[in-house]
User: Fold Aspartyl/glutamyl-tRNA(Asn/Gln) amidotransferase subunit C from Antarctobacter heliothermus.
Amino acid sequence: MSIDIETAARVAKLARIKVENEDLPALAQSFNDILGFIEQLNEVDVEGVEPMVSVTPMRLKRRSDGVTDGNMQDKILSNAPDAREGFFAVPKVVE
Assistant:
């Protein structure tokens, strides 16, 4: 597939990127270079190759996924204009 100047202009418009008319041939060539690289990647045989996250085998640090209240109830409620019994107090809106 080859990208011409009109297609490059349309892609720029869809991406909401302002490209001057004299820059369109260079943009079209850049698109063609990218597509050529993708075609090269498609030629590589990856049968049996496991997907990987990184080129180095390292494991990310993990923490326990436990739900807590943060032990900061007093600190959080100190910013509230009105707090009662450990909760935010709000005006009644339904009668």
Remarks:
- The mean pLDDT is 89.
